[in-house]
Amino acid sequence: GAGVSQTPSNKVTEKGKYVELRCDPISGHTALYWYRQSLGQGPEFLIYFQGTGAADDSGLPNDRFFAVRPEGSVSTLKIQRTERGDSAVYLCASSSYGRPTTDTQYFGPGTRLTVL
Amino acid sequence: AQSVAQPEDQVNVAEGNPLTVKCTYSVSGNPYLFWYVQYPNRGLQFLLKYITGDNLVKGSYGFEAEFNKSQTSFHLKKPSALVSDSALYFCAVRVDNSGNTPLVFGKGTRLSVIA
């Protein structure tokens, strides 16, 4: 079946601009996660959705970052007033939420964000 | 706080030889451990996980990992490496509790299998 998809695959923007990154999870998966992967590092947790609600947003670095999942499927990560330090690969993952801590998370290919 | 260490940035192995990619973890509570592989310009692919039970876990593509509680390790192994195994490997941990805890990743180990 179809995996997690993310669009765009690449996004180049200028400092100060607003960007939206989209994630389409595996059909039927109720849990959705966003991670950020900087060069030479492992992915770092940003936010977790269970259904439509953000169950844990403790990883969001500041209030310029926001994510929504209005219908419990597709999610959008929104970054306001982008800074060069926001440049990274943004990964989305989903899981079926049988039991959140043991469920396998399945990752999308990521969106590479470059802020000039 | 939970953490994962992958002590080797790079592992080189000859094709056909056994490979080991090391991972140690630190958690307060019972750990759930995962290995993922990342190929260039692709997302992370799940290889295997340890939740409970047998300490030796078998996963995709002939990989296996052994959970060692006393050494707090979860090393990834394969008896005979293939050139196609060359990729970036990530170990990750979550701790068992009643709510959600983030999946915490190591920095990754780049495996290079030489023909």
Keywords:
heterodimer, A: 116 residues, mainly beta, Immunoglobulin-like, four-stranded antiparallel sheet, 11 strands, globular, B: 115 residues, six-stranded mixed sheet, 12 strands, 0% helix
What does this 3D model show about the protein?
The complex is a heterodimer of chains A (116) and B (115). Chain A is 0% helix and 47% strand. In chain A, strand 4 (31-37) and strand 5 form a beta hairpin. Chain A has a single domain (5-115), classed as Immunoglobulins (Immunoglobulin-like), CATH 2.60.40.10. By secondary structure, chain A is an all-beta fold. In chain A, strands 2, 4, 5, 6, 9, 10 and 11 form a 7-stranded mixed sheet that branches. The mean pLDDT of chain A is 93. Chain A has strands at 5-7, 10-13, 19-24, 31-37, 44-50, 53-56, 65-68, 75-79, 88-95, 106-107, 111-115. Chain A is globular, with a radius of gyration of 13 Å. Chain B is mainly β and 115 residues long. Chain B has a single domain (3-114), classed as Immunoglobulins (Immunoglobulin-like, Sandwich). Helix content of chain B is 0%, strand content 52%. In chain B, a hairpin with a 4-residue loop joins strand 8 (64-68) and strand 9 (73-78). Chain B is globular. Classes of the chains: A mainly beta (116), B mainly beta (115). The interface between A and B is medium-sized, with 27 and 28 residues.
How would you briefly describe this protein structure?
The complex is a heterodimer of chains A (116) and B (115). By secondary structure, chain A is an all-beta fold.
Tally of DSSP helical segments of chain B: 0
Q: Provide the CATH superfamily of chain B.
A: Immunoglobulins
- The percent range for helix content of chain A is under 10%
In CATH's first tier, which class of chain A applies? Mainly Beta
Unreliable parts of chain A: none
Summed over residues and divided by their number, the pLDDT of chain A gives a mean of 93
- How many angstroms separate the termini of chain B? 41 Å
- Oligomeric state: heterodimer
Helical segment tally of chain A?
A: 0
Shape of chain B: globular
* Structural Rg of chain A: 13 Å
**Looking at CATH, which topology of chain B would you report?**
Immunoglobulin-like
**What would the CATH topology of chain A be?**
Immunoglobulin-like
Major sheet characteristics of chain B: 6 strands, mixed
Shape of chain A: globular
The greatest inter-chain interface is formed by: A-B, 27 and 28 residues
Number of domains of chain B: 1
The gyration radius over C-alpha positions of chain B equals: 14 Å
Which structural class fits the helix and strand makeup of chain A?
A: mainly beta
